[in-house]
Amino acid sequence: VLYEENPEASRRSNVAGKVPLGVKGKSLRILVTGGAGFVGSHLVDRLIGRGDSVIVVDNFFTGRKENLVHHFGDPRFELIRHDVVEPILLEVDQIYHLACPASPVHYKFNPVKTIKTNVVGTLNMLGLAKRVGARFLLTSTSEVYGDPLQHPQVETYWGNVNPIGVRSCYDEGKRTAETLTMDYHRGLGIEVRIARIFNTYGPRMCIDDGRVVSNFVAQALRKEPLTVYGDGKQTRSFQYVSDLVEGLMRLMEGDHVGPFNLGNPGEFTMLELAEVVQETIDPNAKIEFRPNTEDDPHKRKPDISKAKQLLGWEPTVSLRKGLPLMVSDFRQRIFGEQKMGGA
Ligand code: NAD
Ligand code: UDP
Ligand code: UDP
């Protein structure tokens, strides 16, 4: 019996082969756009581990094959080099739409491309969801709140975003992506989910993406000073990647559209973060102050009551527990690369 023609048979053979079945005992076909990136690759690990078939679509702008290489050769895994700004035809049950540069350095590199990815890329993936009747999850961002005038941020807050600033390609791009998602839902009956992700860190982050956690960790390991922008009193909340992936999967499988804040409510100033990095890596690491970037939000902290109540979700990994896991990955990559380069 051919695999494609008889899904029941393939399900039975999964049981026989002791491959775990997907959620609710059913194996799903899942598209993860941006799956070669930091968050996407951890999500793929969980989905494959659960017994689903996964197609990753990624243009490798910031993603890397190394993040997925452990799945190569698995018949339930497929990697397609493709830019979501171009249409694509695939048959899937669910779409996790992550494709988009996420760090300020990367999204400012080509702002027009960032907008196209958010708008045209999201439109294409919604069109695909419509064509095949798939459920669609958008990974939006806490940046939709801009430089927030409400603290902590609740999902009902509409935000304070500069439409013409250097961060707008990302902030406004994601806001438009949310609008498109809701209009496909309301107008065309597409099943959608929206996550607003707050700053997330962990293994496989790009080492030189300019984000504060990757900068501080790489700097401390390389015995360089930690660069604190501005007075270092601005705040962020840092979520470990496994907590985020759990939240995304609960959101996809649950009955609620959202938007849902997914983040760790623990709030740190950048100076406090520098101290945690010093404690974890090198107590003698120096701190160097640099001028801050334009439009930098002063504070950010999620109110996660809605996700707690409706998804039964909350983060379980504190910064002090999660940071060492990222440090060992960075240590291996930074010093491994140097050895290879020097050989
Ligand atoms: P990442 O840069 O590691 O991953 C993004 C992936 O998308 C990369 O693999 C990249 O190559 C791919 N990509 C970019 N443009 C594409 C295009 N046009 N076509 C196909 N692929 C494309 O970033 P991440 O941290 O893993 O972020 C994943 C998603 O989560 C993004 O949508 C981001 O906006 C969102 N998010 C992340 C954070 C965070 O702190 N990490 C916070 C808020 C929102
Ligand atoms: N699209 C896609 N894959 C599909 C279906 C649609 O990439 O399987 C793209 C399509 O090319 C279009 C977008 O998604 O640019 C929106 O599609 P929709 O059918 O909603 O709108 P229309 O094509 O009618 O403008
Ligand atoms: N930041 C910093 N030093 C760095 C990189 C960033 O002090 O080396 C600050 C930055 O000004 C911002 C905060 O850290 O206030 C978070 O920046 P990041 O780029 O990580 O994320 P986002 O601004 O998107 O929340």
Automatic annotation (TrEMBL):
Origin: domain of life: Eukaryota
Any one Gene Ontology cellular component term annotated for this protein: Golgi cisterna membrane
Membrane topology value: Single-pass type II membrane protein
Domain NAD(P)-binding: residue ranges: 31-324
Pathway note: Nucleotide-sugar biosynthesis; UDP-alpha-D-xylose biosynthesis; UDP-alpha-D-xylose from UDP-alpha-D-glucuronate: step 1/1
Location in the cell: Golgi apparatus, Golgi stack membrane
EC number, as in UniProt: 4.1.1.35
Enzyme class: lyase
GO annotation terms (biological process): D-xylose metabolic process; UDP-D-xylose biosynthetic process
Record key words, sorted: Decarboxylase, Golgi apparatus, Lyase, Membrane, NAD, Transmembrane, Transmembrane helix
Recorded GO MF terms: NAD+ binding; UDP-glucuronate decarboxylase activity
Cofactor: NAD(+)
Signal peptide: none
Main location: Golgi
Family: Belongs to the NAD(P)-dependent epimerase/dehydratase family. UDP-glucuronic acid decarboxylase subfamily.
Function: Catalyzes the NAD-dependent decarboxylation of UDP-glucuronic acid to UDP-xylose. Necessary for the biosynthesis of the core tetrasaccharide in glycosaminoglycan biosynthesis.
Record protein name field: UDP-glucuronate decarboxylase
